[in-house]
Amino acid sequence: MGRLIAPLPVLQEGRSPKESLKEYQFSEESSNSSRKLQNLLIAHATGDRKDDGEYVLLRQKLISNKALAPLLPQFLQTCRNLDQFWQLIKSKFKTYAERKNQIWEEFNPLFEAFEQDSAPSDKAITESLGIIDAPYVQAAWAKAIERRSSDPEGAITSARTLIESVCKHILDESKTQYEDDAELPKLYKHTAEVLNLAPSQHTDKVFRQILGSCTSIVEGLGSLRNRLSDAHGKGKIASKPASRHAELAVNLSGALAMYLLATWETKESNY
Question: Staple partner for 208: which of 99, 139, 199, 200, CB 3.0–4.6 Å?
Answer without folding.
Answer: 199
